[in-house]
Design brief:
Structural class: alpha+beta
Order of helices and strands: HEEEEEEEE
Distance between the termini: 105 Å
Mean pLDDT: 86
Strand content: 15-25%
Radius of gyration: 34 Å
Helix content: 25-40%
Number of helices: 1
């Protein structure tokens, strides 16, 4: 029940009672403070959302590159040395060697299944992706299977290289050097879905599981 009180009597019907409220200046100041706080909160929410999106994109990129590294490392560890029995004519890898390095960004090997596998950086429609080709024994130099082991929609591979001994061989893979081959893989990767994303330098070294006996 709404009741009005009179200042000079006990009657509850005095309509001249003074009303307290906000002035126009106070309302403007309050509105300005509200807008400032709201803008700050919105900015914080947007920044958090961007940070979360960036974290997800970087995580997907890392998972993509980790899968590629693990696949290459597994086949490199179990590489078979090329010989006249598993690679007549040295079509995949020159006989007596474990790897065939072409340039600095293409590597061929005979994997644990006896097939010739080549890793290289794609070009054309397959640009910015690591490609894995398979030439099924007996080798003819023409791959029967080819596919990407990185996803271009998630990660761009900018460079892809294998370290050499300066003579066109994988480190320790020169014939007669009596050294255990070591494959040093390095590449630069960048997340695809994030603008101005940092470029990541990735490098790993893999050795064969079996002792390289000449």
């Amino acid at each position: 029940m709404l009741t009005f009180y009179i200042s000079n009597s006990d009657s509850p019907f005095d309509l001249n009672v003074k009303q307290n409220g906000f002035t126009l200046i106070e309302l403007l100041i309050a509105s300005a403070i509200f807008v400032l706080i709201s803008s700050t909160l919105i900015s914080i929410v947007i920044d958090l959302s961007k940070a979360q999106k960036r974290g997800i994109i970087i995580q997907e990129m890392q998972e993509n590159t980790r899968f590629a590294i693990e696949m290459m490392a597994r086949e490199i560890r179990l590489t078979q040395k090329s010989s006249s029995s598993n690679d007549p004519g040295g079509i995949c890898v020159p006989n007596g060697k474990n790897f065939n390095l072409i340039g600095e960004s293409q590597l061929s090997l005979i994997n644990y299944s006896g097939n010739c596998v080549t890793y290289k950086l794609g070009s054309g429609v397959e640009a910015n992706a690591i490609i894995r080709e398979i030439d099924i024994a007996p080798f003819d130099g023409v791959p029967e299977q080819s596919g990407k082991i990185t996803t271009p929609s998630k990660v761009k591979i900018l460079t892809f290289k294998f370290a050499s001994d300066g003579a066109g061989n994988i480190l320790g893979d020169a014939i007669g050097d009596n050294k255990q081959p070591k494959v040093v893989i390095s590449f630069q990767a960048q997340a695809t879905d994030f603008q101005n994303q940092q470029i990541y330098q990735i490098q790993t070294t893999v050795s064969q599981r079996e002792l390289d006996v000449q």
